[in-house]
Amino acid sequence: MRKGQQITGTAREKLAREMKEQYEGGRSIRAIAEAYGRSYGFVHRVLTETDVSLRGRGGEHPQRHPGTPAHQGR
Hints:
The protein is 46% helix and 0% strand. The protein is mainly α.
């Protein structure tokens, strides 16, 4: 499929299933978009159309120890 090519019907359904499976397996929207040569917005839209529960932003955060400030200057 060419970048920017409109995807409809069964091709879109198949693509949506693949993307949903990858996202639910832990892959990020950005990684999926890059792998398929599509935009972040396209992948986000496809995932929301398939009723995927989207994760929060920022990925995993290391656990802080109690009393440690949330942000330490870098």
